[in-house]
Amino acid sequence: MENGASSYRRFCENDDKSALAELIKDYRNGLMLYLNGITGNLSLAEEIAEDTFVLLGVKKPRYREKYSFKTWLYTIGRNLAIDALRKQKRHPTVPIDEIAEPIAEEQDLEEAYLREERKIALHRAMHCLNSDYRQVLWLMYFEELSAKEAAEVMHKSVHAVETLVYRARKALKSQLEMEGFHDENL
Amino acid sequence: MMKTYDETTQRVFQKMEEQKMLQNRKKQTVFRTAAVACPVCLVAMAGIGIWRMNADKPPVTTDSLPAAPTVTEQVNGTDSVSTSVSTEQTYETPAVTCISAPAVTDALPQQTVPTVSTPRLSAVTTPEQANNCSGVPIMGCCDRLLSISFQGDVYVETRNEVVLNSLIPDKKLGTIKEFTELYGEANLYSGLPGQGTEASEDTEVYSVKGFDNVILLLADGKQFALVKAEVVDVGEDVQALVSLEIDELLFVEMRGLNGLQLTTKEEIGTIAELTASGRAMICKGFGQKGTVFADDAAVYTVQESEDMILVIQPDGEQVILCRP
B299 and B271 in contact (C-beta within 8 Å)? Predict the structure, then answer.
C-alpha cells in the first residue's frame, strides 16, 4: 500500500486527479472504520473521511516520509475527527436518520474491508470498548501499524501506546469471554 | 445510506471545487479591500507626517506678526547702498540711530516671528531701523540658532568657545521636557534647520556658577550655552540691545556674559575714531535700552576669541560683545 505516497506525489506535482481517486479507493474504508472507532458514528466518520481527502486535494499538505503514508493520512483524519467532535459538543445536533442508523451498513463495510470472519468478530466486540482502546487495537492489529506509528497517529508516546494496547487487549479479552468466546490465543 | 466509492470520489472532487471557489472569492475580496484601503492609508500617513513636521515648529499666529517687510535695495553709488523697507506695521517708539553706514549687508527678507506670549528675538526690520541702519537686522542671526524661552526670558545659544570653556555647570535645573511641563510657557526653538544646535526634550539644563543669566544645556556629552537675551518689548514685538559692526562683522552686546574675565589683546580704536573713519557702525536697541558707548570708549580685541570684542568705557565699565 505504500504506493499511497507515490500517488499523492503524482497528484501534488501533476495535479493528477486520478491519483487522488486511487488514494480514495485504497484508504477510504480503512480510514472510515478507524474514524468510526473515534466518533462512534459511521455517517460522521464517512463525512470526516471525505473531508480528509478534500483537505489533501485543496491544501496539498507536505508529506514527509518519516512515517508511512497511511500513518500520516490517519493522523490527519484523527485531527479532523477530534475537531468535528469538539464542534459537535458545542452545537449538539442529531439528525433523525442517524438515530436509526442501520448497523447493517457498518457490517457490510466490515465485511468488505476485513474479510476474515475472525477479525470481523473481534471488531464487533471492540464496540464495547472505549475510544482509545478501539483506536489502538484497530491501528495495531487491523491496520498492522507498529507501536511507533500508532503512537504518531494518536499523538502519544510509544510507552503510552504499549500500555494502552496491553489494557485494551485485556478489556477485549474479558469482553469476548463475557460473550462466550473462548480462545487460548486471546 | 453509505456512499459507494464512486459517490465518495465525486463528492470529494465537488467539495474541492467548492472550497477552491471560496478561496478565490476570499482572495478577490482581500485584493479589492486592499486596493481601496492602501491609498487611503498612504494619504493618512502622509497627512500625519506633514502634521508632525509642522508640530515640531514653533507656533506662529498671524495676529502677532508684523506685516512682512519688503526690502528693496537701490544702489546709489559705489560706496553706499540705501535700502527701503515698506510695511504696514507702525512702531510707536523707534529708537534706532545709526552713526554711519558705510558697510553693505544683505537684509533678510523674511524671518519667522514668534507669538507674543513667548517673546523672542526678532529679525524683522522696521522702517526706522532700515532707514538708519541700512536694513541690518539686529541680532537676526540669533533667530537662526537654538533659543529657549520660559518665564518671559529668552535664552539664545552662543557658540563662542571661550564662553563655553569658561562656564562650569552648577545645579541641574531639569530637562527641557520638565521645563515645558513645569512652566507652561516654556518653548524650545531649534532655529533654522542645520544652523542651530538641535536639542531634544531629554536635554539636561544646568545653571552656571557665577552667571545668573546663562544656562547650560548638556546633550549627548556636548555642552552648549544659552545666554539670556535682554530683550526690550516694543509694541507686540521684541528687539535686542546695542550692536556694533566693525569691518563688516556684527558684534552684539550680551549682558548675560558680564562678569566674564577677558584679556584685551589689541586696541582697535575708540568709538569716535572708528565711526568717523567709517570702519564701524553702531545700532542702538529700541527704547535706548542698550549700553550707550561714550565717544572715547576704547574697543579691544580679546585674546580668548576672535568672535568677541570688549568695549571699555571711560569710567572703566566693560561691555562684552559677541558675534551672534
Answer: yes
pTM of the predicted structure, to 2 decimals: 0.42
Helix and strand numbers (H, E) in chain A are 10, 0
Give the single-character DSSP code of A10: H
Residue whose entry in the numeric block shows the C-alpha cell 570684542: B309
Shortest distance between the Cα of A105 and any Cα of chain B, in A, equals 7
The torsion region of residue B281 among left (phi > 0), alpha (psi -120 to 50) and beta comes to beta
Rounded Cα distance, B281 and B105, in Å: 12
Contact (CB, 8 A) for B226 and B148: yes
What pLDDT, in 10s, does the model give residues A9-19? 989 988 888 99
Residue B175 in 3-state DSSP? strand
Phi, psi of B47 (to 5 degrees): -60, -45
Decide if A24 touches B, using CB distance below 8 A: yes
Q: Is A108 on the interface with B (CB under 8 A)?
A: yes
Q: How far is B2 from chain A (nearest CA, A)?
A: 7
B160 and B321 Cβ atoms separated by less than 8 Å: no
Looking at chain B, which runs of residues are DSSP E strands? 70-75, 81-86, 147-150, 153-158, 169-175, 187-189, 204-208, 211-219, 222-229, 232-234, 237-239, 243-246, 249-253, 264-270, 280-283, 298-302, 308-312, 318-322
Q: What is the ipTM of this complex?
A: 0.73
**B232: confidence class by pLDDT, cuts 50, 70, 90:** very low
Residue B267 carries which side chain, given as an amino acid letter?
Answer: E
Residues of A in contact with B9 (CB under 8 A): 21, 24-25
Minimal Cα–Cα distance from B31 to chain A, Å? Answer: 21
